[in-house]
Inverse folding.
């Protein structure tokens, strides 16, 4: 068994579950998960740009995020960003958090192959 770790450098930002930042169904993710309106950040979900999906960052994948301040840690991919974005992730947060952008963020997934 071989553990492969894929590390990608991205820009990370935040988003809120509101129509102006999502679509007309802000509490339903692209993976069809229901967002807790009272504590969206509690899910620890991220949206990824579509180019990252081709690299294995797909719905349900746990991602280790580094170099993102207090957002550093393990998050799960459950949403997809607008097609205009490349090499980018968005942290789902509650509306109390304003502003948030980190450059040179490292994201990684670990997979096991036989």
């Amino acid at each position: 068994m071989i553990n492969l770790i894929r590390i990608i450098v991205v820009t990370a930002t935040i988003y809120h579950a509101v129509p102006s930042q999502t679509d007309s169904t802000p509490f339903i993710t692209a993976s069809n998960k229901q967002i807790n309106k009272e504590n969206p950040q509690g899910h620890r979900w991220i949206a990824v740009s579509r180019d990252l999906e081709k690299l294995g960052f797909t719905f349900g994948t746990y991602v280790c995020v580094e170099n993102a301040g207090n957002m550093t840690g393990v998050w799960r991919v459950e949403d997809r960003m607008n097609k205009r974005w490349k090499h980018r992730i968005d942290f789902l947060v509650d509306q109390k958090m304003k502003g948030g952008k980190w450059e040179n963020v490292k994201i990684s997934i670990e997979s096991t192959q036989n």
User: Anything to note?
Assistant: The chain has a mean pLDDT of 91. Helices lie at 50-53. The CA atoms of residues 20 and 38 lie 18 Å apart.
